[in-house]
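To the team - NAP complex, inputs and output below.
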Amino acid sequence: MTAQILDGKSLAAATRAALKQKVEALVQRGVRPGLTVIIAGDDPASKVYVRNKTLAAREIGVHSQLFEYKKDVSEAEILQRVAALNANREVHGILVQLPLPKHIDAARVLETIAPAKDVDGFHEANLGALMAGRPGVVPCTPLGCMRLIEHAGVQIAGRHAVVVGRSNVVGKPVAHLLLQRDATVTICHSKTPNVESITKQADILIAAVGRAKLVGAQMVKPGACVIDVGINRLPDGKLAGDVDYEAVKNVAGWITPVPGGVGPMTIAMLLENCISAAARENP
Ligand code: NAP
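Output:
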């Protein structure tokens, strides 16, 4: 079997095109969606992510603004900035790029963002809403995973979904989204014995670990839908996912590539969250 490739790049492009029309409709009503990104320190990967996010926002007509701070910025200064953005009616989305410098309490910063403007969906109010199955802002990467699965037409209800990884930003939220869609969900983590015996049962397998090529062909049920969230830098500088793509594509029914799978969908979902926030503020 050769898996169908779930092309996140083209789905993200189609999503952005649809979002651009929503932005135009909002602008006609006098509302320009606004996204503000805060970055502190000089982590090169974070700088690339932030640049991609602000460029993508601009391309579809979302006003984007970037506050860049040196790595010795005080926590108080960041908190003050967030408070000012919370009060600014032209700002609909606030994103604080992680990681923050170590002396800053990232959790405190994230909790300071007004939940309605928390376009990353990391505020406890939004994570709690997700767990309770109530409306809220859903984290971008898990939402992007769901869109890829839906777009492929893969049945979710009644299927066994296995999520490898239990972080608050990917593993746990995606598990809840799958549960909301009536999948039977198992979450594996670093203390799970014999992960392979569980992943082999998965109709839908989500890998969100951060270990290059951890998921081999022997861990995958034939015909499964495999979503690879991992982004790992190999010694030769190339990017690899958490899934051994070349091997698994011969077993899976569907598979996301890295790059070009979940990554572009994450940015598209960020834009969607920002535009939805602007629309909610201006009904
Ligand atoms: P994280 O916070 O480091 O969490 C990793 C999870 O994997 C943890 O729950 C950990 O278990 C588990 N784990 C580690 N080794 C394992 C093993 N051998 N077997 C089973 N589980 C294991 O990472 P994250 O933030 O969720 O990110 C995961 C990956 O996705 C990273 O490569 C990251 O770069 C990527 N990512 C991509 C996007 C995107 O847009 N494509 C967005 C976010 C993240 P414990 O909890 O027991 O430690």
